Structures are given as C-alpha cells and as structure tokens.
Amino acid sequence: MTKLRLTTIGNSTGVVLPRTLLDRLRVGRGDTLYVVETPMGFELTPYDPEFAEQMDVAERVMREDRDALRLLAE
Is the pTM of this model over 0.85? Predict the structure, then answer.
C-alpha cells in the first residue's frame, strides 16, 4: 500500500505520485490519468474508459459486418 499526502499546488489541492508508482502506471509529466469509481473504491488509470468502450463497440461492428466492410474496401 502506498500512502499519499494532499498538498497545495497554487490555488488547488494536488497529490504527488512517487516515481515508482508513475513507472508502474507507465505515465509521466503531462500524461492524463482517469479516476474511475468502482464498487471497491476509486481506480486511477491511464486508460480512458469511455474510449475503451467505444473501441469495444467498433470491434463488435467490424466482426459482425466484416463481409460488407471487405466489399467496401475493394
């Protein structure tokens, strides 16, 4: 478990993430993180859950309509 402390950053409140946590998330300065509320609490992730859902829909459409898409590509 990693304990994080809230700190003042300008007029806002922020959390400083340790280098080891940033490395495990594979993110760095300037990257975007998403906070997702789950039944177990909050999840911090570099993956946009809305984009992932859109990609799932696109993959399903491509799988279901692959013959029509193949004809359109010719």
Answer: no
